[in-house]
Design brief:
335 residues; alpha/beta; DNAb Helicase, Chain A; Rossmann fold; 2 domains; 14 helices
Length: 335
């Protein structure tokens, strides 16, 4: 039996299985038109009535489905009658369904990417391709449906006593008020008025993390890349910015070499024009840095939130490689 037929059969007759997988089923995963139409009908019925569809109702819905010709209706109805195989091993069935959905999502993502490259999709640019592929690869049937206060008491206690690995500051007061730094995989915002020194603070934090051996990605949408690097130079070299221009080139490079010898970290500064970038650009940049420079950031800093195309406050780390579990995002916002 084809996997498509097995999935559709159990969506009709296996309530436990249906409730588990129906949120992830997409008609585009089915290449055969009969499978695609029936999957669409099953999903729509469940979404409306919160119950599995019967064969009798399915036949009626097929006859009323817009877009089917008079010739197709009896063919689709006859095919629906063959969807009768029920699999008792739900664990196995859910596992192969998850693999099916992921494989089909990746296949569709590749086809969509080709359309973008060939110019057949005018609504998306090639910058969207990495995020399209990442979303397809990240498909998973998440079994977590919430924290059970009683049953999860033991795990909750372990959470209270877990020692979090944090990204510390080289400022004692900030370490004090944040309890030794900021936790990994968190979104943090530096909030202050105009001209108070948010970008100066971020450059200081970037410099401190670089010296500490961490990889830093600094995204700027207000100042040029060289201006951000200038501030970081002044911070690390402990000189005023006006003295950087008068410092001899050999002296400057030798001091940078000393920092490089002590620190294994890297700092990348990327500039986008004001109001020209959004989260999709940043995901594409992260992917490009990983491929071209083998660079995976420990901390990402974005300066600043209000001049993104879409103001979206989120910290999405689900697509990070398993061996790079650190992600600290710091954005400044003007008030």
């Amino acid at each position: 039996m084809r996997i498509e037929s097995l999935i559709l059969s159990n969506l009709i007759q296996n309530d436990t299985y249906c409730r588990k997988v129906i949120p992830y089923i997409d008609k585009s995963y089915f290449t055969d038109r009969k499978d695609s139409v029936i999957a669409s009908i099953i999903s729509s019925f469940f979404e409306t009535y919160n119950k599995t569809i019967s064969h009798e109702i399915l036949e009626i819905e097929i006859s009323n489905y817009s877009g089917l010709s008079d010739k197709e209706v009896p063919e689709f109805t006859e095919y629906s009658k063959t969807l009768t195989v029920v699999e008792d091993n739900n664990d196995w069935l859910i596992e192969i369904t998850e693999k099916f959905c992921k494989d089909r999502a990746v296949y569709n993502a590749i086809l969509n990417s080709i359309k973008i490259i060939e110019g057949k999709d005018t609504k998306k640019s090639q910058d969207a391709i990495p995020s399209i592929l990442s979303e397809a690869l990240s498909i998973t049937f998440d079994s977590h449906v919430g924290h059970d206060y009683i049953e999860d008491a033991a795990s909750r206690y372990d959470y209270y006593n877990r020692v979090e690995e944090r990204i510390g500051f080289n400022l004692d007061m900030f370490n004090k008020i944040t309890k030794d730094g900021l936790p990994k995989k968190t979104l943090n915002i530096a909030l202050a008025g105009t001209g108070v020194g948010k970008s100066l603070f971020m450059c200081h934090v970037a410099a401190g993390n670089l010296v500490a051996g961490r990889n830093v990605l600094y995204i700027t949408m207000e100042m040029a890349e060289e201006r951000i690097a200038e501030r970081i130079d002044a911070n690390i070299l402990n000189v005023s910015m006006d003295k950087l221009g008068t410092m001899g080139k050999d002296v400057f490079l030798s001091r940078i070499d000393k920092i490089t010898a002590k620190s294994k970290g890297k700092l990348i500064v990327k500039e986008y024009p004001t109001s020209s970038a959004h989260a999709g650009h940043f995901r594409a940049l992260l992917e490009e840095l990983k491929v071209k420079r083998n660079f995976l950031p420990d901390i990402v800093m974005i300066d600043y939130l209000n001049i993104l195309i879409h103001i979206v406050v989120r910290c999405d780390v689900s697509n990070l490689p398993k061996n790079n579990n650190i992600m600290f995002v710091c954005l400044t916002i003007y008030v």
